[in-house]
Amino acid sequence: MNESFQALVLDQHDEHLHAEVKEVKADVLPKEEDGNVLVEVHYSALNYKDALGLTSSGKIVSHYPFIPGCEFVGTVVESDHLDIKVGDEVIATGFGIGERHFGGFSQYAQVPGNWLVKLPKGMNMRDAIAIGTPGLTAMLSIDALEHAGVRPGEEVLVTGATGGVGSFAITLLRRLGYHVVASTGKTDSPYLRSLGVETIIDRSELEGPVRPLAKQRFDAAIDSVGGNTLANILSQTRYEGAVAACGLVGGADLPTSVYPFILRGVKLIGIDSVMQPMARRTNAWERLEELIDPKVLNDMIHEIPLHDVPRHAEAMMRGELSGRTVVRLR
Ligand SMILES: NC(=O)c1ccc[n+]([C@@H]2O[C@H](COP(=O)([O-])OP(=O)(O)OC[C@H]3O[C@@H](n4cnc5c(N)ncnc54)[C@H](OP(=O)(O)O)[C@@H]3O)[C@@H](O)[C@H]2O)c1
Questions:
Q1: What is the C-alpha to C-alpha distance for residues 212 and 203, in angstroms, rounded to an integer?
Q2: Residue 65: is the preceding peptide bond cis (ω within 30°)?
Q3: Are residues 138 and 264 in the same domain?
């Protein structure tokens, strides 16, 4: 492809970051050794990681000048990969996209074909990007709990409940027939009730001092908070229950003991969506297509043009955004 196109270019001068929509040439896009695929990007989405990368130097982005955007969806226009054909609709999340490899805040992106998932039949591009990394992470967490023996009808605690991962976890768990206990800092918000949550607890209940073992309270949990919260969850999970740990908004430490594991057989399962093998990714996307109601997604989406990304990144860092901020490239 020879034409130039628009991309958000992040650069650093005198320790200051500067992001601007610029006209760039296709030859700036990175090429891996083989299997390169050029995608005409239709949508990207603004994640916390992107906001951090756009506002704090050196935290997420590996080098400058750089095209950020950790995920994108679009149509394949050139392909050197055997399984990905011109015209396929694909989604890319993880693998260092928008961190080490130029990302999706761009009208075109180029990545190795084995980083791409073809959209499940019946899922459109806007819905796919609205689900994106948080939806995928929630689905992978539920897959892991089910693999550990957790079954519909049981009670699953979801922490960081009103966040991206939390909201998708609740929506999916309810759809699958689980009872949900939501732990949140916003107990008065009607939002969690609208997602079908039956029991809401204040997140401060799980933030206090950790006892090695406490009353068995939850069958399972999906935790995006970490720290004392995760340690308290482990102490309060029932015999042979399972906990999926996927985030650290409350802290990266884990002040627990071996007692929940050796006296109750509790399973702690780590969830990583970034380097997840392709077979599990594809399976998760197919389940997401089956389980997520597009009407619910539509209510979550706030759509912005590319040049509004820097302003929204700052608002996200101030905690002012809710739902999914979808970036329109076309
Ligand atoms: N493992 C992976 O592959 C993967 C993928 C995606 C995200 N993540 C991680 O998962 C976490 C959540 O991501 P997200 O996209 O859902 O973020 P998010 O949309 O910002 O939501 C996080 C939620 O956590 C709660 N929260 C915020 N600060 C807190 C604090 N100091 N202590 C306790 N709770 C707090 C809030 O919910 P309430 O007000 O309802 O409590 C907030 O809405 C992040 O750490 C992210 O890095 C990991």
A1: 19
A2: yes
A3: yes
Residue nearest to atom 14 of ligand 1 (CA): 164
Ligand 1 pocket, residue 192 CB under 6 Å: no
246 CB less than 6 Å from ligand 1?
Answer: yes
Cα atoms in the Cβ-side hemisphere of radius 13 Å centred on 319 = 3
Average pLDDT estimate for 272-279 = 95
- Is there a domain that residue 20 lies in? yes
> What's the 162 CA to ligand 1 centre distance in angstroms?
9
Sequence letter at residue 156:
V
CATH, residue 113: 3.90.180.10
Query: Ligand 1: which of 199, 202, 224 to mutate, most ligand atoms within 8 Å of CB?
Result: 224
**66-95, pLDDT tens digit by residue?**
999 999 999 999 999 999 999 999 999 999
Q: What is the CATH number of the domain that holds 144?
A: 3.40.50.720
**Residue 246 near residue 269, CB atoms below 8 Å:** no
Domain total in the chain: 2
| Whether the CB of 141 sits within 6 Å of ligand 1 | no
Look at residue 186 and tell me if it is in a domain. Answer: yes
Distance 225 CA to ligand 1 centre (A): 6
**Mean local confidence (pLDDT), 179-206:** 94
Structure tokens at 312: 């929204």
Could you tell me the distance, in angstroms and rounded to a whole number, from the CA of residue 163 to the centre of ligand 1? Answer: 6
End-to-end CA distance of the chain: 17
Ligand 1: which atom is nearest the Cα of residue 270?
1
Alpha-carbon distance 286 to 289, whole Å?
A: 5
Q: Using the structure block, give the residue that is written with the tokens 């989604």.
A: 91
Distance 318 CA to ligand 1 centre (A): 14
Task: Please check whether residue 144 is in contact with residue 110, taking contact to mean a CB–CB distance below 8 angstroms.
Answer: no
Q: Domain span at residue 81? A: 4-118+293-328
Atom of ligand 1 nearest to the CA of 274: 3
